[in-house]
Amino acid sequence: MSDNIIIRAAEGKWTVRAGGAVIGESRDALEVREGDLPPVIYFPRADIAMAFLDNSATVTTCPYKGEAKHFSIQTKSTVIEDAAWSHDAPIEDLEQIKGHMAFYADKATVART
């Protein structure tokens, strides 16, 4: 695993909201710390209402975690473009985040509830 990344269980129950709706809740979320950046909460996809998310054409690459697919959130009134990302095939030793999804802080609200 990259010395730059620390993955641990995120304690408690976590909720993600977007467009006024709860998109997901989990007690099995992961906290991912990358260097000096703020921690990011990764939700198991099974705990996300995937019916509200659409695949995006956006793909980015992190040198530490690998390729990330992006997702847009469909709300009642708008689409929040590229609001979330997921690593389907993370770099070796970071397999814990496979099957998990994270959300951009400026596009969704993630909080411990």
TrEMBL record:
Protein name (Swiss-Prot/TrEMBL): DUF427 domain-containing protein
Matching InterPro entries: DUF427, DUF427_sf
Gene3D superfamilies according to UniProt: Domain of unknown function (DUF427)
Species whose genome carries this gene: Aliiroseovarius pelagivivens
Domain DUF427: start-end pairs: 15-105
Domain of life the protein comes from: Bacteria
